[in-house]
Amino acid sequence: MTEPAFVTETRAAYDTVAGSYAEQLRDLLADSPWDRAMLGTFAELVGKSGPVGDLGCGPGRLTGYLASLGLDVFGVDLSPGMVEVARRTHPGLRFEVGSMAALDLGDGALAGVVAWYSLIHTPPAELPPVVAELARVLAPGGRLLTGFHVGDERRHLSHGYGHDISLDAYRLPPDFVAELCVAAGLVVEARLVREPQGSFEKAPQAYVLARKPA
């Protein structure tokens, strides 16, 4: 089966920027109280109930943070370059190369899934089966937390993190993301939209937290 062009493009872009991306975003959570609040709430709700997948983990900055909150967490990313950085930075954690669209996990294997700005490179029309895959690997009572840029448009990036790249990124309406969760059989527990902070963010940001019914 031929790989979709957007998947190939995304992998190539993140392989290119892996090192500089990790360096520039390394301390971002320290300046993001809303991010820490949502991740902390997720961690408290999931607790010790089972393993958590940080899917689209990049260099593992959130994986490491969630581990510091006491979660049994591992990371999966499409980019081998990102996984290499993550393994080097967090040698005590597990990271694998893989796709959120076809996870090498059994049904109900996870107590939690974090998809942190990792749905944004998939065209919106292609997202329903991806979210359904995230729901599939959640155990009953498990939680999904996703973060994304708010909007309703595609942006093409030709330069990022000091490198020439070719990458599409989609801003998403919060209602649309919530509807994707509901269509996948999840119950939306919370959503938050906030204004951009600092010079790094160019649009409002949103979080959606959903639960798989027990």
Automatic annotation (TrEMBL):
Alphabetized UniProt keyword annotations: Methyltransferase, Transferase
InterPro entries: Methyltransf_25, Methyltransf_Superfamily, SAM-dependent_MTases_sf
Molecular functions per Gene Ontology: methyltransferase activity
Superkingdom of this protein's organism: Bacteria
A Pfam match: Methyltransf_25
Methyltransferase domain residues: 54-142
Keyword Phosphoprotein: no
GO terms under biological process: methylation
Entries under SUPFAM superfamilies matching the protein: S-adenosyl-L-methionine-dependent methyltransferases (SSF53335)
Keyword Methyltransferase: yes
PANTHER family registered for this protein in UniProt: METHYLTRANSFERASE, METHYLTRANSFERASE TYPE 11 DOMAIN-CONTAINING PROTEIN
UniProt-recorded name of the protein: Methyltransferase domain-containing protein
